[in-house]
Design brief:
This is DUF58 domain-containing protein. This protein is an alpha/beta fold and about 300 residues long. About 35% of the residues lie in helices and about 20% in strands.
Length: about 300
């Protein structure tokens, strides 16, 4: 049984995830991205060809590709016939939603875990609107949920309920000790042997290494990968008003009322986190993997839609 929450900024509400369906028409995941968006420049579209479906057998017309001639029917009837094909539009989308303990944090407005859940729901509704299949990988502190791609509103509703449930299980007592890490998540993606799928990763990328980014690059050979980095400014720099700040990790606490202690902690945090974030951005760019950003300011839906060329 999931815990009830009165503040949708701390825990996402199932009802809110459903309401996001109304915003699915204000952006598109189809291959018509505007120049200058995060997804432009690698291909004319991030989506690969999905193959051809046989549509009909008809008489040859001037201009038809002779490679599509059906010789058996042509010989049998004495008249040239061609096989007509249409491009397959079906796509499988895999939305990877990070709901680990590191995501239960925000210093501004909305928890990173809620940002990820709401962006996942918004994207899923858009995918369903385009009549494509949507699957989920939900990474929680103690397990990974793999939900195969389906084109069904009923299935999506069940999955959003699960996402809401696991989100509401996160609290301040959640620990990252011995939890399922980013490595296990990437390993699962490899084991699934996905092909011609679009993979969208919504995470703070905590625990990601060069090896994991390289593995995602390998996945991109047969799929399309989009990374969404969810961050909070407090992870890079402490606020300037520190006189009453006490920080802790669940076991130890540090009082930052001393200016020297504050400056030392701030410098150490900034060096560690900034380097990590910048390294991720640089690695993704080097590997040719699109990466967009959303933060905990409460404007994540607008940030996401704007980044992929929505309105």
């Amino acid at each position: 049984m999931s815990k009830k929450s009165t503040d949708s900024r701390i825990h996402c509400e199932y009802s809110q995830l459903i309401k996001l369906q109304s915003q699915a028409g204000f952006f598109s995941l189809l291959p018509n991205f505007k120049a200058g968006t995060a997804l432009s420049g690698r291909h004319s579209s991030i989506f690969r060809g999905r193959g051809l479906n046989f549509e009909e057998l008809r008489h040859y017309q001037l201009g038809d590709d002779i490679r599509n001639l059906d010789w058996k029917v042509t010989l049998r009837t004495g008249k040239p016939h061609v096989r007509s094909y249409t491009e397959e539009k079906d796509r499988n989308f895999i939305i990877c939603v990070d709901q680990r303990s590191s995501m239960f944090f925000s210093s501004i407005d909305t928890m990173k875990s809620v940002v990820a859940a709401e962006l996942a729901a918004l994207t899923a509704w858009r995918i369903l609107k385009d009549s494509d299949r949507v699957g989920f990988i939900i990474n929680t502190p103690d397990q990974i949920h793999w939900l195969k791609p389906k084109r069904s509103q009923a299935d999506l509703l069940h999955r959003l309920q699960l996402l809401s449930n696991v989100n509401q299980l996160l609290d301040v007592t959640s620990s990252d000790n011995n939890e399922v890490g980013f490595t296990q998540f990437v390993t699962l993606l490899g084991r699934l042997k996905l092909k011609e799928a679009t993979i969208i990763i919504l995470s703070d990328w905590h625990g990601a290494t060069v090896d994991e980014i390289t593995h995602l690059k390998h996945l991109q050979k047969h799929n399309d990968v989009l990374g969404v980095l969810i961050s909070d400014p407090f992870e890079s720099q402490f606020p300037s008003q520190y006189s009453h700040w006490v920080v802790g990790d669940g076991a130890y606490q540090l009082n930052l009322s001393d200016a020297k202690r504050f400056d030392l902690a701030n410098k150490g945090l900034g060096e560690h986190q900034d380097l990590k974030k910048e390294q991720l951005i640089q690695l993704m760019a080097t590997k040719g993997l699109p990466l967009i950003e959303a933060d905990t300011s409460g404007h994540h839906l607008e940030q996401f839609k704007r980044a992929i060329g929505g309105r």
